[in-house]
Amino acid sequence: MSENYDIVVIGGGPGGYVCAIRAAQLGLKVACVEKRGALGGTCLNVGCIPSKALLHSSHLFEEADKHFDTHGIEINTPKVNLAKMMARKDKVVDSNVKGIEFLFKKNKVTYVKGAGEIVSATEVKVALLDGGEETLNAKNIVIATGSEVTPLPGVEIDEKQIVSSTGALELSSVPRKLVVIGAGVIGLELGSVWRRLGSDVTVIEYLDRILPGMDGELAKQTQRIFAKQGLDFKLGHKVTGAKTAKGGVKLSVEPSKGGDAEEIKADVVLVAIGRRPFVTGLGLDKLGVELDDRGRVKTDEYFQTNIQGIFAVGDAIAGPMLAHKAEEDGVALAEMIAGEAGHVDYGKVPGVVYTWPEVASVGKTEEQLKDEGVDYSVGKFPFTANARAKAMESTEGFVKILEDKKTHRVVGCHIVGPAAGDLIAEVVLAMEYGASAEDIARTCHAHPALGESVKEAAMAADGRAIHM
Ligand code: NAI
Question: Could you say which residues bind NAD(+) here (predicted)?
Fold first, then answer.
């Protein structure tokens, strides 16, 4: 049996499902092939969403455990019911998965449950989850197969004692000692979850800084805040091997630049050293679809591979490996296939670490601007001077806005502080419209709100912040 489609999307994550829905909205006949048995991809099933559910629950626990007293709320010592916390997380995931299934029905996207393989530029063969095979004929094929955990040689993931982010979202008890390998986004988010729930957490990072790629000053301040919260950082070190036994894991750790090895023990080890594109089993080599030197599917500005009619989006291609970037790719591609214009500016994709306080960033860092020889001004405003942050007892951090002195355009913004992930949206919009710091500064912001810190930072770029 074979069906004809305008587009067959392989992968039902944020890149794939959003592309499928947008294309269907534009009148195209679309099928989306997904082998997980649930839509939403890594992000919804074993990534962004379950981690945010646990981040929120563990934040509430920490508030109750350590900070209620400050607000004049007296309670008995709170306790964690981990099974219940995990069940709530699973419910959040499940309801979102059902939401996408509903959207597929609403938009008449055909959902094909199985593993897709591209057998020609117009055919996708699906090994159906229920058994059997189906071939889908497609005018256009979209690879949206995402990414997988980058393995660390010598440290084999068993998802029990040595876990990836997937296993770290499913632990059945709070480990006494958790070692996180990698001080990137996953390491800091999940390290924070388990620290709040009672683990003693050490984060081992190869580089001599956390959050590589983010603004240096932002990363330094963030590290200070997290260290104060109780995360122990071992920077400039690498893990070269792991031995698991019943009692726990023994890690061999060395200075990154060479030196004496030491042994670090842990009950659980989380490997969070990055992700790599996942394109296995798609038949790409047989077809001759080109990959780049990092294993990503090579695409042109229209998301097209070297084979006409085969496209790719999201984590499987170049650009930041983020769910919202994948969604933007998916929408732009769907619109282009439907004959409209589409474009995604990877220079204006915000990045957020959903800890407390949150960390958010968009555009250029100070290091990048210096490297590029751009003359820029800095406007910085601390949350200690924001009335709302004071009322919330959440005054750690700052907003930093960077403006190009020549063009007077905002070229970057870096925030660590309460709700940073929401505050950054205003600056992303400003940058999309080529706004200056003065444009943000002259925009009326509600008082008392955290967003006033963004306005004040923009004013500070002109040397005229009022509350500092
Ligand atoms: P990452 O790239 O953010 O961080 C990995 C860290 O591991 C880096 O600091 C790197 O220097 C370090 N590292 C690499 N090899 C090492 C070694 N052998 N020993 C010690 N440290 C080592 O990767 P992460 O945290 O695994 O996240 C994967 C992807 O998922 C990223 O692209 C991230 O942006 C995305 N993600 C995004 C989230 C968000 O937007 N909130 C949440 C979680 C993941």
Answer: 182-189, 205, 274
